[in-house]
Specification:
The protein has four helices and two strands; from the N terminus they run H-E-E-H-H-H. The chain has a domain of 63 residues. The chain has 95 residues and is mostly helical. The longest helix has 17 residues. The protein has a two-stranded antiparallel sheet with strand order 1-2.
């Protein structure tokens, strides 16, 4: 059963999921978000990232692999990373 087949609408219109571990979902990201995430994941030491379960670290590693293999971000320049960071962080109000 695919992830699309297992989704159903709840009474309030929300989506509920009954998924199997092998299911795959498609997530759409803005290009700038993908570049920022890829750059961070390439530079962060996952053994030092605080998590509540080891699966969270694996999920981050899986995200990095997906970005490397499915999105053309591996050859980005520092200027493109800087521009992407600016785009992602503008108007967000976080410091």
């Amino acid at each position: 059963m695919s992830a699309e087949d297992s989704r159903s609408a709840g009474h309030d219109g929300s989506v509920t999921n009954d998924f199997a571990p092998g299911d795959r979902w498609t997530v759409q990201l803005w290009t700038a978000d993908a570049v920022v995430l890829f750059d961070w994941l390439m530079s962060v030491d996952l053994s030092r990232v605080p998590v509540s379960h080891k699966a969270e670290k694996q999920a981050l590693a899986d995200l990095l692999t997906a970005l490397e293999t499915q999105v053309p971000v591996a050859g980005v320049t520092q200027a493109q990373i800087d521009r992407a960071r600016h785009e992602v962080s503008k108007d967000m109000g976080w410091e």
